[in-house]
Amino acid sequence: MLHAKGVGSRDEVVQLELERDEATASLKGARATYELARLDLESTRLTAPIPGRVGDLQVAPGNRVVAGDTVLATITSLDPMGVAFDIDEHTALTLLRERCGDGSGSSLGPGRPVLMGLADDVGFPRRGQVESVDTQFDAGTASLRWRAAVSNSDGLLMPGLFARVRLTTSAPRPALLVRGGATRKDGQGDHVFVVNDRGLVERRLVRLGGMHDGLREVKSGLKEGDWVIVAGFDTAKAGTAVKSEKVPMPGSALVSP
Fold this sequence. Notes:
Blueprint: H1 10-43, E1 53-54, E2 75-76, E3 81-88, H2 89-101, E4 113-118, E5 126-133, E6 143-150, E7 163-167, E8 173-174, E9 177-179, E10 184-186, E11 189-195, E12 201-205, E13 207-212, E14 215-220, E15 227-228, E16 254-255
Antiparallel strand pairs: 1-2, 3-6, 4-5, 4-7, 5-6, 8-16, 9-14, 10-11, 11-12, 11-15, 13-14
């Protein structure tokens, strides 16, 4: 335009246009260099994708790292905490038959409630639910691996701890429970000693169920209100008169089969 108006020669205009193009290219190169430097700076700041606890650092300041190859540290998710446990083949088959028999499909799936206790916990105070079930049995142990997510709001659960897990297989139901040490077994079967309304000792054959927090379920042979002898078995003989005293029994009368 300047040359068309008679300002400057043709060569001067061409030279100015070349200098303009070079300056534009230099500016683009500087912007690209800045963008690369910005990305490199962002790469020096690592943000954990999950909340949790960081273990021992695998590298120290000054060590060389390779993106996508060098492990810097291990992060463990703590709340909820994953708990793995095994159930035996018989229990797994029972669960399968119970659900398949009523047309509702397999019960081996997520969502089933679980109760958990640590080595020093009384009972099973922690609650969670099943997240996943393995797709095949372990042929060596005839067991099936389950995994549950358990709340860890107090932060006591850590990877590697041993835990006691109770799998809920049905809704709670009322049951007759006695102290585990109150039952006896001989050639005739399981039995307990009770004190009748005349103060005499009776021997009752019973059919026992499972253990629930130190208490044994009695499926038959007892009725609600029976006085079961829990101590003094050396002197408790059928037909003898005894002076009984009530003692408190711990635990709950709601159990899951």
